[in-house]
Amino acid sequence: KKPFISAINKSKQLAWAIEKRHWTLEDWKKIVWTDELTFLQIQKSRWERV
């Protein structure tokens, strides 16, 4: 069964898609696609790229 998507989330998804409509194949290859994921980010004293 497909989960319910609220009107607000639909609007956000559409805005995201419109923003990315000009991306090239190379741009899309930089994206990591996953299902929902929960993770804990522990704050450290230095900057880290996540």
From TrEMBL:
<protein>
    <submittedName>
        <fullName>11743_t:CDS:1</fullName>
    </submittedName>
</protein>
<dbReference type="GO" id="GO:0003676">
    <property type="term" value="F:nucleic acid binding"/>
</dbReference>
<dbReference type="InterPro" id="IPR036397">
    <property type="entry name" value="RNaseH_sf"/>
</dbReference>
